[in-house]
Design goal:
296 residues; Rossmann fold; N-(1-d-carboxylethyl)-l-norvaline Dehydrogenase, domain 2; 2 domains; three-stranded mixed sheet; 54% helix
Length: 296
């Protein structure tokens, strides 16, 4: 059985690590927060004091951090993965960062004789908890196939989106433009209906049964009507960061993104008001403007 390292034990990372442990992998993890290391130990994992220690003797290491700078430090830093990883081992970059930031890892990883799979994930905390994430993996075909067991332990839908590192992040940035825009459309539609006097349950039942009905719509609408704005595993700062990546990629490629740009600005306003809350908290801003409240 493969030995696995895991860097970044936030809500998503911890859930993924626990699924790897449940699948029978021997897992060593690292996080800057001691309480997260304690949680990992209680679940049967081994805490490490650095990325280098987590990677020692590992066949593969997952990276689930927030930014490209963090990912580079984890891989190439003084106590980074490449100081201890053995030749032939694999790094699975499941964090969402800029495509160009992922590509900066190609040369140092190749020089160390280590494989790299660029594979951001989608599905939120619910998908991470249940092991049903969607993975967008870019890597040589043989590397992708050799790590199916690891990816299947955390995800249900595995897509090989290309052989070039950075393509996984490119697909994810495109997807996040759609998801972010969808969120803001949901927020606005619910506020509009509420202000016009429609009962919240009617909005929920009709919207979810319509042609745009989806798990995303159902979950988002329910959380808003339950007034669940914190601790749902979808922190507003993450989506704001992701939309920023989407907009940067649009600028680099000369694409007009009217809807995604509006979503990015709405998330910018939301994060200034509710920096510690989750995506759904943005609806409160729209409610204040309309003088209404979306509820059952």
């Amino acid at each position: 059985m493969k030995r696995v390292g895991f860097i970044g034990l936030g809500d998503m990372g911890m859930a993924m690590a626990l699924n790897l442990i449940k699948a029978g992998f021997e897992l060593t993890g690292f996080d800057l927060r001691q309480e997260r290391l304690d949680m990992l130990k209680e679940a049967g994992g081994k805490p490490a004091s650095s990325p280098a220690e987590a990677a020692q003797g590992a066949d593969a290491v997952f990276i689930m951090v927030m930014t490209g700078a963090q990912a580079e430090a984890v891989v190439c830093g003084e106590d980074g993965l490449l100081t201890t990883m053995v030749r032939g081992a694999t790094i699975l970059l499941t964090a969402t960062i800029k495509p160009g930031e992922a590509r900066t890892l190609i040369d140092p990883v190749a020089k160390a004789g280590v494989h790299l799979i660029d594979s951001p994930v989608s599905g939120g905390k619910g998908g991470a908890d249940s092991g049903t994430l969607t993975l967008m993996a870019s890597a040589p075909q043989e590397v992708f196939e050799a790590n199916q067991d690891l990816m299947q332990a955390v995800g249900q839908k595995l897509f090989h989106v290309g052989e070039d590192v950075g393509m996984g992040q490119t697909v994810k940035a495109s997807l996040q433009a759609l998801i972010g825009s969808t969120f803001t459309a949901i927020f606005e539609s619910l506020v509009l209906g509420s202000k016009a006097g429609v009962d919240g349950k009617v909005l929920y039942d009709v919207f979810t049964a319509s042609g745009v009905g989806s798990p995303l719509l159902a979950n988002c609408s329910k959380l808003i009507m339950d007034r669940a704005f914190k601790g749902t595993g979808s922190q507003i700062g993450t989506m704001y960061k992701d939309l920023g990546i989407s907009m940067d990629m649009a600028k680099e490629n000369g694409c007009s993104m009217f809807t995604a740009a509006a979503a990015h600005e709405l998330f910018r306003a939301g994060i200034s008001l509710f920096p510690e809350e989750d995506n759904w908290s943005i609806v409160k801003l729209l409610e204040q403007i309309a003088d209404t409240e979306v509820k059952w």
